[in-house]
Amino acid sequence: MINYKNWKIVSHKTRWFGNTKMTINNDNDWRLQKQEKYLFGVKLSKKKYQKYSENWDHDHCEFCSVKFIETKSFKEYYATEDNYYWICEPYFNDFKHKFNWKV
Ligand SMILES: [Zn+2]
Description:
Structural class: alpha+beta
Helix content: 10-25%
Number of helices: 2
Strand content: 25-35%
Order of helices and strands: EEEHEEEEEH
Bound molecules: zinc ion
Largest sheet: 3 strands, antiparallel
């Protein structure tokens, strides 16, 4: 049984679960959990990171837990219209067909 809360990210496609190193392949996509319940077919826009509310300080990618904070950088990510869900570019590219996202 894998505890998904305790993973250590190595790269976009590799991570450690305790002592087990896992690399992604097509039959075994452990990156997907329940995201299709709230992200399937939604409209996403590419934009600079903006906080969802003033009491918020950062967000994480819905798939890989990469952290987003407001900076002066012009790097853009994919987000739902309300800025609630954020997705990094590599994961957006991997899952755009599977999730049927509209951009
Ligand atoms: Zn990500």
